[in-house]
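Below is one protein, fold included:
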Amino acid sequence: MITITDRGAEKVREFLDSNPQEGDAGLRVGVRGGGCSGFQYVLAFDTKREGDMSFSSHGITVLCDGQSFPYVTGSTIDYVDALTGAGFKVENPNVTAACGCGSSFRVEDEEQVSAV
């Protein structure tokens, strides 16, 4: 399961209200290879696709493709507005290492593969 905080849900609603999407849009959470630690998060506003997992959190639909799900299961999506910038932040319990800038991460399975 993937959840979203109250503040994160508020920001998603603001975006969806100001940029209407066709169909029932939600927040897509995924990963792709890249960055100095191995994976990077991909967040986008999208509609459900075949094979997606779908969760409802604070009235927001959270979507995730099957390949990304093992890497982000249990995560919480928040919206942070700080001196260093504003944007969505993923709190992921699966992360075992992250780069200094926080834009990429590694999970335990990836570390085991790298050690071989």
In short: The radius of gyration is 15 Å. Confidence is low (pLDDT under 50) at residues 110-116. The chain has one domain: 3-115. Residues 3-115 form a domain with the Hypothetical Protein Aq_1857; Chain: A; fold (CATH 2.60.300.12).
